[in-house]
Amino acid sequence: MISLQKYKAWFSGKKEIDEQSAEAGVIGVFDAIDHSHFSACQKDAFASYYLDSIKQADHVRRLKLEKMKDAPEQVLSSWMAHNAYQKHLQQVQQDDHTKFMMSGLTVIMSGTLCIYFIYAVCSQKFLLNFSLDALIGSIAFAFLIINIRKKLQIAKRYSSGRELILLEGISFLICALLKMVIPSMFDLSVVILFIAYMTEKKKLEKTIAVSIH
After folding, report:
1. How far is CA 129 from CA 20, 110, 138, 180, 183, in A?
2. Residue 71: pLDDT above 70?
3. Distance (Å, rounded) from C-alpha 55 to C-alpha 58?
4. Is this structure's pTM higher than 0.85?
């Protein structure tokens, strides 16, 4: 088996291929896709589309490889007009959207728990006791970091991801400050994080819609 780990930055499919596929030139095509100017999402769709297409006859596959060597960008651009490629692209985008939603909701829940724990430490008002609150806070923090990274990875498949980092940072800063000055009964952390999540989600959906055309 041949590893495809070097393409994991944009390829979400299987991580290995058999030697027969490697001999057929899959690695060469993946390298061409990797060095192209297209977004990570489009590269992912190109790779999935090609892996399906290599089921065709050997002479057709060799012809595609020769064209890929001569003008990779031109070949990849021509694939975009194929219905099969568009289906792969839409599936990749749908998967990204679903993952982003799940990670975003997890960030809201885990982020709120982290803010509560920080407030508890500062005010010395623990829900249960320090040990149990610290355990819950630590677990929540781990989930928070993991899912922020997932959101950032997905965002970077379509843009730089800087806006997401900025929005996440600002929203958590506002939540922390409000938690310190407003009584807990008027806590707005969930609301603020949800607004940030919806803003990020709308931004991603807009970017996805633009990338389709």
Report:
1. 60, 19, 14, 20, 20
2. yes
3. 8
4. no
